[in-house]
Design goal:
The structure holds 2 protein chains of 2 kinds. By secondary structure, chain A is mainly α. Chain A has 10 helices and 2 strands, in the order ααββαααααααα. The two termini of chain A are 27 Å apart. The chains are: A mainly alpha, B alpha/beta.
């Protein structure tokens, strides 16, 4: 869809021009890896044979993609509340392309951040598997994951009446995603009931797949299953966003 | 046989086309109205924002929807620009239904919204260029249109600056240029001069008039300012509480009240005054408001009828304090049809 591409380029142009956002995202990545990684490494030397930095890096990358999705939703909410979205609505483009444009720019920013984090992680001693195809696969999965969470955030942004309301709702699903996942601890150490919750969380599949693809850790879950779960998640959440967006337009 | 039938068809078509052609259409004959609605209704829950609106705006004209804030003007424009689906009834732009043929409608209209809908981070040029790309205009066309429009709305010096540095009037002009990027057949402007200083208002008016006169563009605009409707509109529709109360040429609407109004202030029997005044030759109608000590006497020619009117009134024991003679305004039209003054 051409309109998706046009909206994506608009977001990207603003992203590149707005040095605060660019620098902010870059610094965020550095701080996450340095502070969190170093702090936790002091406590835990290795997890299941790999060093903790390599273990935690996929988790940090996934979580920063979440933050990016929340920001992407904010952009739509801001454009909605200020009426800017009307320019798109009056144009001969599909409604979905408006959401996909936002999701695509969120995914791009997530990839940018992930690349930075990987580089810093490597400097901090993480050990990447020598597997370029795996790296590429990991980035593709990350992009799909970012689109999925963009969908959720965009859906919430489509119906929120205020910025505070949006953040309140987002907080509801943001926090559990961090702790109810395998980001900070391996799946195997969790009790059975918690494993069930963790397996509902799409972040778990991304993190497990990235560990396997980019860091050469043995996958806990089959790779094809992780890919499938992420793809279904992204499609379902975009459908969710579209239905809420269209509902908000009928009112 | 076939030839004969074809010949008949052509004649019939020609006759049909002739019937449609009006001398002042300047060659841009269209069978469709630029905008047409039929018993259009929009409800939000229990609130009726639009109540059976039947609007007809001919192509190639400037049509002004005049009404107070909250009358339903913006809701009507939202339906017409495909942003809101109607609850019932239908609306067409150039013959295309706004629900069924939404894509066709969107390709043919240019819109400016009541609120400033601009991205503060983009420059003026980027704003226009992005809009053109959304409509898939080729790069060469975009470049050329931007050059023309920047000249038209006098933003040459500012076009490469970020929009956040623009004044309110400059933003409005940029929005107007954006609405024109796609060379629309119908231009829809929601309160185009709201919040602008007098100089910028007059500028916008002259652009709107130019677009209509030189390019034959059909323009639909809303306003709550009578002077704006009087200055611009070929046709005015008066809207209040979601109902389109009357539509027509401003001159006709005003003339329907009588060409001049004599306002008489004083004390006495207003009912008797009304009877006496109505009987005078050339007086169309008398409206009295005894509480305010005011009588409005609508006549065909105020200065000619004034002596007769004053003579008749004062001979009947009415004490006149003050008399003014004026042409009725669109404000009087609004008052006449809605029963209340045009509130802001």
């Amino acid at each position: 869809m051409y309109a998706t591409y046009v909206i994506w380029t608009r977001h990207m142009r603003k992203f590149v021009q707005q040095t605060e956002e660019l620098v902010g995202l870059a610094l965020q990545s550095v701080l996450w890896v340095v502070l969190f990684g170093v702090g936790m490494r002091g406590m835990i030397s290795d997890v299941g044979g790999s060093d903790y930095m390599s273990f935690i890096l996929p988790g940090i990358i996934a979580l920063s993609a979440l933050g990016g999705a929340v920001g992407g939703g904010m952009v739509l909410l801001d454009e909605r509340l200020r009426g800017i979205v009307k320019e798109y609505l009056a144009a001969p483009i599909p409604r979905l392309s408006i959401l996909l444009g936002s999701a695509a720019s969120t995914a791009t920013k997530a990839l940018f951040q992930a690349t930075l984090m990987l580089i810093i992680g490597l400097l901090m001693g993480a050990r990447l598997a020598i597997n370029p195809v795996g790296w590429l696969g990991a980035l593709v999965l990350l992009a799909i994951f970012a689109i999925g969470f963009s969908g959720l955030a965009l859906g919430v942004a489509a119906i929120s009446r205020s910025i505070a309301g949006y953040h309140g709702m987002i907080f509801l699903f943001n926090l559990p995603l961090l702790f109810a996942s395998n980001a900070l601890y391996p799946l195997s150490v969790l009790p059975g009931w918690m494993q069930v919750i963790v397996l509902i969380n799409p972040a778990t599949y991304l993190i497990d797949a990235v560990r396997a693809l980019a860091f050469g850790v043995e996958a806990t879950l089959p790779l094809w299953a992780s890919g499938l779960v992420l793809a279904v998640f992204a499609a379902a959440s975009m459908a969710f966003a579209l239905s809420l967006f269209q509902r908000s337009l009928r009112a | 046989m076939t030839v004969l039938t074809d010949g008949l068809d052509i004649t019939a078509q020609a006759r049909y086309a002739l019937k449609e052609l009006e001398p002042d259409d300047q060659g841009t004959v269209m069978n469709e109205h630029a905008v047409e609605t039929q018993t259009l209704v929009k409800r939000y829950g229990t609130v009726t924002a639009l109540d059976r609106v039947n609007l007809q705006a001919p192509a190639g004209r400037i049509y002004a929807l005049l009404g107070p804030n909250g009358a339903g003007k913006t809701t009507l424009l939202s339906v017409l620009t495909t942003l809101l689906p109607p609850t019932s009834g239908s609306a067409r732009i150039l013959g295309y239904d706004v629900v069924r043929d939404a894509a066709e409608v969107r390709c043919r209209i240019g819109v400016t919204f009541q609120e400033m809908v601009l991205d503060p981070l983009l420059t003026g040029r980027e704003t226009l260029d992005f809009h053109g790309r959304l409509y898939r205009l080729p790069a060469a066309v975009r470049r050329q249109r931007i050059a023309e429009l920047v000249e038209l709305v006098q933003l040459t010096d500012a076009i490469d600056r970020p929009v956040k540095s623009y004044s309110g009037g400059m933003k409005r002009r940029l929005e107007l240029a954006r609405g024109l990027m796609t060379d629309p057949q119908v231009l829809v402007l929601d309160e185009p001069t709201q919040g602008l200083d007098p100089q910028n208002r007059v500028n916008i008016w002259s652009y709107v008039r130019d677009l209509n006169r030189r390019r034959g563009m059909s323009i639909l605009l809303t306003t709550h300012a009578m002077d704006e409707a009087e200055a611009l509109a070929d046709l005015v529709g008066i809207i209040d509480h979601g109902r389109l109360i009357v539509e027509g040429k401003p001159g006709d609407l005003i003339a329907s009240l009588g060409s001049d109004v004599i306002r008489v202030r004083g004390n006495g029997d207003f009912q008797h005054l009304a009877t006496v005044a109505t009987a005078i030759d050339g007086v169309n109608r008398v409206e009295t408001d005894p509480a305010d000590g005011l009588a409005l006497i609508y006549t065909d020619n105020g200065s000619r009828r004034l002596p007769a009117v004053l003579n008749a009134i004062s001979n009947n024991g009415f004490a006149i304090e003050d008399v003014t003679l004026a042409r009725p305004s669109l404000g009087d039209v609004f008052l006449h049809y809605t029963g209340t003054a045009l509130r802001d």
